[in-house]
Specification:
The strands form five sheets. This protein has a four-stranded antiparallel β-sheet. Helices cover 31% and strands 34% of the residues. The termini are far apart. The protein has three domains: 106 residues, 2-Layer Sandwich (Gyrase A, domain 2); 121 residues, RNA Polymerase Alpha Subunit, Chain A, domain 2 (Beta Complex); 30 residues. The radius of gyration is 32 Å and the shape is flat. By secondary structure, it is α+β, with helices and mostly antiparallel strands. α2 packs across α4. It comes from Candidatus Berkelbacteria bacterium RIFCSPHIGHO2_12_FULL_36_9. One of its GO terms (cellular component) is cytoplasm. This is DNA-directed RNA polymerase subunit alpha.
Length: 271
């Protein structure tokens, strides 16, 4: 049985979780060893290479740096920044945008208190931002942008931000957790085929199916690109063999022509 014949019998099943952010994909049967190969590749891509959105920087009224404090607010600025850092978002389009918040106390500020921005969708509207007493007030502007993986502030140390703007470590990856398991499964009399189970949890900004399909596309695009490069460039040894073969052919043709000329040359007449 060829490997492509094995692939023709492959089944992909999807089991939904309690919401769109949780789900399980089951792939079987896979050729022996391919459960680990595919599972490991998908896990790496899902965790590090999917595009997501995050708060990139914030400007808070009355605050010049993250170690400042504001009267009337229970949390210090560091805690507020950590709450903004963990806020999960979805950004339409590729350009950065700004979300604004202007709230007076007393009360608890949640993500739903941000002013509406049609380009930004907040995954958890009940996400905690800060707590205000009756004299408290929080006014801020947060910049949201797209990226992938994790981008610490240290990586942006040469970036110049406007005065009073605080850079934030950005967690762009929309996938929170990915576990995979490989088990044996039966195909006819063979019991060494693989069954791959992928358990995926996203942050709610994208569905599990979106995440899975995006990871597959990234892998396919990379392999297709690599293949196109191999097809365009021949190995040096192969090029050398081709050149040597052409030279030999030319020498053989030249020698053949000379022999033919000698044979056709008429004999000199005797006097």
């Amino acid at each position: 049985m060829s490997m492509m014949t094995d692939m023709e019998s492959l089944k992909v099943n999807y089991q939904k979780g309690k919401d769109l952010s949780e789900g399980v994909f089951i792939l079987e049967p896979l050729s022996p060893g391919y459960g680990q190969t595919i599972g490991h590749a998908l896990r790496r891509v899902l965790l590090s290479s999917l595009t997501g959105a995050a708060i990139y920087s914030v400007k808070i009224e009355g605050v010049s740096h993250e170690f400042s404090t504001l009267n009337g607010i229970k949390e210090d600025i560091v805690d507020i920044i950590l709450n903004l850092k963990s806020l999960r978002l979805r950004l339409e389009g590729d350009e950065p945008t700004v979300i604004k918040l202007d709230k007076k106390g007393p009360g608890v500020i949640k993500a739903k208190d941000f002013q509406n921005n049609p380009l930004v969708k907040i995954a958890d509207l009940n996400h905690h931002i800060a707590s205000l007493d009756k004299n408290g007030k929080l006014v801020l502007e947060a910049t949201v942008k797209k990226g992938f993986g994790y981008e610490p502030v240290e990586r942006r140390k040469d970036e110049k931000l406007p005065l009073g703007t605080i850079a934030i470590d950005s967690i762009f990856s929309p996938v929170k957790k990915i576990n995979y398991e490989v088990e044996n499964t039966r195909v006819g009399q063979m019991t060494n085929y693989d069954k791959l189970t992928l358990e995926i949890t996203t942050d709610g900004s994208i569905s599990v199916e979106e995440a899975f399909n995006s990871a597959l596309k990234i892998l396919i695009d990379h392999f297709t690109f690599i293949q196109s490069k191999i097809e365009k460039v021949k190995p040096k040894s192969e090029k050398k063999e081709v050149v040597e073969s052409e030279v030999k052919k030319e020498k053989t043709k030249t020698a053949t022509k000379k022999t033919a000329v000698k044979k056709e040359k008429p004999a000199k007449k005797r006097k």
